[in-house]
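Kindly draft a sequence, keeping tokens residue-aligned:
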Amino acid sequence: MKRRVVVTGMGAVTPLGMEVSALWDNVLAANSGIHRLSLIDPDRFKVQIAGDIPDFSPEGYCDPKDHKRLDRFTLFAMVAAGKAIEDSKIKFDEEDAYRCGVILGSGIGGLAEIEIQVERLLYKGPDRVSPLTIPKLMLNAAGGNISIRHGLKGPNFTVATACASATNAMGDALKVIQYDDADVVITGGTEAAITAMGLSAFQNMKALSGRNEDPDKASRPFDSDRDGFVLAEGAGILVFEELERAKARGAHIYGEVLGYGASGDAGHITQPDPEGAGAARAMANALRDAGMDPTEMDYINAHGTSTPLGDKAETQAIKSVYDKHAYELAVSSTKSTLGHSLGASGGIEMILTLLASQNNLVPPTANLENPDPACDLNYTPLKPAERTVNTAMNNSFGFGGHNASIICGKVR
């Protein structure tokens, strides 16, 4: 029999705050974390807006000597993981280290470090490339450094499935605990891709919104006037723990992780299946894994990136899986205020999905002022909605055709 898994700690680093409480309050108020770029000079670029975090500091969550020895995406993860561990009140020095692991997601990893070292190579020569380059840029640097800082010797790996990375990582964490390979897993995602190369690449493939003069309104999922996603950064990290163990130590439980599903489109490298077939299969697989009927679902935190094709395909996928119940569901996209933090987004959105269930309050889809007729579900426009949320689904879909859905809710 599979063991049950709950969430006992949460930590976040986002454009809307570096405390979970601030993140939640700002999302409910539909405050925007999107603004004119501050990390890099915006005047060089066609797209000049993003959800960057100019006031971020890792102080207190890693050794001061490591502040320059770790890439920004790892520093985000270190802070968010430290906050999640504090929140869980777990004392790892009293635990069996081999039963405690780290499974994280990141779509791109240390992009800033790649840019810095390529410039050194080209302009100063190979002898000036830092010996820390590989340990800084590698995708598994975040998970490795978290495990080192907290002494965690259990399963430790990193998932890279573009924008589905964090949700795939959380699904793997769920399975690792269910099948008794660990008791506690630090999981979620982290991303810091707002760099000159990252922004240039996304703008040139025409994936980003061009609303430079109105950044607050730029991310508008399911709206007829949507014109692309807004690049963001951050981390969302959670403590997954076996249920009986969490109860025995008197942990606060945010909710239970009930099921997980994944699939691949096997279609276009950047565009979703037009009918959302792969996304639908991931959702259906998650429901099957949870042993749930579709009519039991109350809320979906949609992938909802504000792209013309993606939002339409996800709507079709939801209808395919939930049939008539699709119109009874509450759906929303919190990327409308946060932007899209790529491989970190699933972790941040899992936090918001759990809080929606805990508070029976559905966060809004900001900027949904002119609904697309092809997107005709209840997307909770503009304001939060009170609703009993016993079960909720978090969707994440990524370039490469990667689809992941995870279900959480109140402990049954």
Remarks:
- The longest strand covers residues 255-264.
- The chain has a mean pLDDT of 97.
- The first helix runs from residue 20 to 28.
